[in-house]
């Protein structure tokens, strides 16, 4: 591993985090909450660490695949640790809860240990939302520009023939993709802020909810989440932007380049739309049949909650924990799926579900026609066998970590329903789960050791499992 390269990039990330502390500091100073110093001290720490990293890594930067894994993993961990400091300095929560909250922010999970969000100072509210917005943009750039170059990630299905990163290919590609994606990401955020302001939402609420919608993060400035505004208009606007944020951002790049055919022929986006419509229809029926909703109320509630869970945002308009068991089962199943690869959503991703389904169908067909030669295609392109094996491996690891974390959390004294809900909610980066960590509850009552494990689960799910697991193997640390 080239430690000089890793130090330089991590130093740059630390500087970005330090600069990001300034808007909450300015807001805290402007509204006289007395927490300005918490952000300024943290910003100073981040800037000093960042400058130290840059100062000790001068010279030509050469990045190899191993360096990329280290940068991605340690970058997210470092950001979460720095992001936790303001919570502690401001007296919001202790170190363990602060790390949990910060990791939940940067991984755009949305799980929270803070019961009374409305009592938080304005600067902290902005910082919580800003961590999700930064994390969401980072994930889009990572999944489209970086992970395919490292040979992993959902977008690898489009980039299977691309080798690992080299000094002459990696930087121009990331720079070009990141610049364009930045424009799309900011554009969606500003557009949503305008729509929310038009609906009567205050400026701070509008900015925070736009940050957490486009990033599919789910942190809210209200205890009852989006439902506290009691506005069908606001709920509809947020639902629309959640859905847009669950779309592969690479398709937005295609639309900007006037390549609309790619979006129309993309199998993943078609499944995304069909799955949302079918889930909304079924959930609406269950709410009418078992929970006493009217057609209008059921459709509205079902549409918002399905989009929120499918995109792994986690906003809520009502407590689905009190809905019928079949309604909860629908939402629980959606928690595994996620939206499109290359979006800010978590979960397994629909692109992998498509490949798994086609591979299973292919195996069934071979039982009837053993000599048949079948190639799995995705949107007209043949999916290489290597990619199919990676998808199968990812799926097995996903289920393994879901069950393992649930069992460990349960062994710490948490009831099994809550343990299962917390495990999938953190691994899929959703936020609210089932049981005692439902949409009307928090993770405050979870044991501290379990919170650390769940924070690690967030990181695993957000970075596509392999990125983190590679760091944990002995071979990674051997000199090459």
Annotation, overall tally of beta strands: 2
Q: Strand-residue fraction?
A: under 5%
Shape: globular
Total number of helical segments?
19
Helicity, in percent?
55-70%
Cα(first) to Cα(last) distance is: 8 Å
Going across the biggest sheet, name each strand in turn: 1-2
Q: Tell me about the biggest sheet? A: 2 strands, antiparallel
Radius of gyration from the CA trace?
22 Å
Chain-averaged pLDDT: 86
Extract low-pLDDT stretches.
152-172
Main structural class:
mainly alpha
Protein name: TrkH family potassium uptake protein
InterPro entries: Cat_transpt, TrkH
Main location: membrane
Membrane topology: Multi-pass membrane protein
Index terms:
single chain, 480 residues, mainly alpha, two-stranded antiparallel sheet, 19 helices, 66% helix, TrkH family potassium uptake protein, TrkH, Cat_transpt, transmembrane, transport
Question: Could you give the topology of this structure?
Answer:
Blueprint: H1 3-20, H2 22-31, H3 36-55, H4 65-89, H5 95-106, H6 122-150, H7 170-198, H8 203-214, H9 232-245, H10 249-256, H11 260-264, H12 267-291, H13 295-310, H14 325-337, H15 350-368, E1 377-378, E2 381-382, H16 385-411, H17 416-427, H18 448-462, H19 466-471
Helix pairs in contact: 1-3, 1-4, 2-3, 2-6, 3-4, 4-5, 4-6, 5-6, 5-18, 6-7, 6-8, 7-8, 7-9, 8-9, 9-13, 12-13, 13-14, 15-16, 16-17, 16-18, 17-18
Transmembrane segments: 9-31, 37-56, 68-89, 133-158, 179-198, 237-257, 269-288, 329-351, 387-409, 452-477
GO molecular function, one term: metal ion binding
Binding site for K(+): 108-109, 217, 312-313, 429
């Amino acid at each position: 591993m080239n430690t000089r390269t890793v130090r330089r990039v991590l130093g740059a990330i630390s500087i970005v985090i330090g600069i990001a502390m300034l808007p909450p500091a300015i807001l805290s100073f402007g509204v006289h909450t007395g927490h300005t110093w918490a952000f300024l001290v943290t910003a100073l720490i981040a800037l000093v660490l960042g400058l130290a990293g840059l100062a000790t890594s001068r010279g030509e930067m050469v990045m190899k695949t191993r360096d990329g894994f280290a940068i991605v993993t340690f970058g997210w961990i470092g950001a979460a640790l720095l992001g936790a400091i303001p919570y502690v300095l401001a007296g919001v929560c202790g170190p363990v809860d602060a790390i949990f909250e910060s990791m939940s922010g940067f991984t755009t999970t949305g799980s929270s240990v803070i019961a009374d969000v409305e009592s938080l100072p304005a600067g902290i509210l902005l910082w919580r939302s800003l961590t999700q917005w930064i994390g969401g943009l980072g994930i889009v750039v990572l999944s489209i520009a970086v992970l395919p170059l490292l040979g992993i990630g959902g977008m690898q299905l489009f980039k299977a023939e691309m080798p690992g990163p080299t000094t002459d290919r990696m930087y121009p590609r990331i720079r070009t993709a990141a610049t364009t994606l930045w424009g799309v990401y900011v554009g969606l955020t500003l557009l949503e802020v305008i729509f929310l302001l038009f609906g009567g939402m205050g400026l701070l609420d509008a900015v925070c909810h736009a940050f957490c919608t486009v990033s599919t993060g789910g942190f809210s400035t209200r205890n009852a989440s989006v439902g506290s505004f009691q506005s069908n208009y606001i709920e509809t606007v947020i639902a629309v932007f959640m859905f847009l944020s669950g779309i592969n951002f690479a398709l937005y790049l295609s639309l900007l380049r006037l390549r609309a055919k790619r979006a129309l022929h993309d199998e993943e986006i078609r499944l995304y739309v069909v799955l949302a419509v079918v889930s909304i229809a079924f959930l609406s029926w269950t709410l009418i049949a078992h929970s006493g909703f009217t057609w209008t109320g059921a459709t509205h509630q079902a549409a918002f909650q399905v989009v929120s869970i499918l995109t792994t945002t986690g906003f809520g308009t009502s407590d689905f924990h009190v809905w019928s068991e079949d309604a909860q089962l629908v939402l629980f199943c959606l928690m595994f799926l996620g939206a499109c690869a290359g979006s800010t959503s978590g979960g397994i991703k629909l692109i992998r579900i498509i490949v798994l389904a086609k591979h299973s169908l292919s195996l069934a067909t071979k039982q009837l026609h053993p000599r048949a030669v079948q190639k799995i295609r995705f949107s007209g392109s043949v999916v290489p066998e290597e990619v199919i094996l990676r998808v199968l491996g990812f799926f097995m690891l996903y289920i393994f970590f879901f069950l393992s974390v649930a069992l460990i959390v349960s062994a710490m004294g948490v009831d099994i329903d809550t343990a299962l809900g917390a495990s999938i909610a953190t691994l899929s980066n959703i936020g609210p789960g089932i049981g005692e960590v439902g949409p009307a509850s928090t993770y405050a009552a979870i044991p501290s050791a379990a919170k650390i494990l769940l924070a690690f689960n967030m990181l695993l799910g957000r970075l596509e499992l392999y990125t983190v697991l590679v760091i944990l193997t002995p071979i990674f640390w051997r000199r090459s």
